[in-house]
Amino acid sequence: MGVANGLFGGGGGMIAVPVLKAAGRSAPSAHATAIAVILPASIASAAVYLLHGFIPLALFLPVALGVLLGGFLGAKLLARASASAVTIAFAALMLAAGLRMLF
Question: How crowded is residue 86: how many other Cβ atoms within 10 Å of its Cβ?
Fold first, then answer.
């Protein structure tokens, strides 16, 4: 997952969630576990990108704050959502991302 995160900018979740669900985790548990596992990889990737100058610090700081706020709100929503709603939302997001990459 770390390699996918580094290459695709957080795409490790699209690998981790289906694998965790296949291993018997519920959808909310699979998402929460993937997020917890991907967090350290995201921090490492961000550090490498910043050190190599791929991301201007002036852009990184507001985006990082938005990601932190969005992650907090998303975790609150995940705790209240049903397993089927989480699965449908994740599938829709994966489909939208795939279509956006194609077009």
Answer: 20
User: Whole-angstrom Cα distance, residue 65 to residue 28?
Assistant: 24
d(CA 62, CA 67): 9
Mean pLDDT over all residues of the chain?
A: 83
Average pLDDT over residues 29-49: 83
| Sign of the torsion formed by the C-alpha atoms of 67, 19, 76 and 36 | negative
Span 21-48, average pLDDT: 86
3-class SS letters over 18-74: HHHHHCCCCHHHHHHHHHHHHHHHHHHHHHHHHHCCCCCHHHHHHHHHHHHHHHHHH
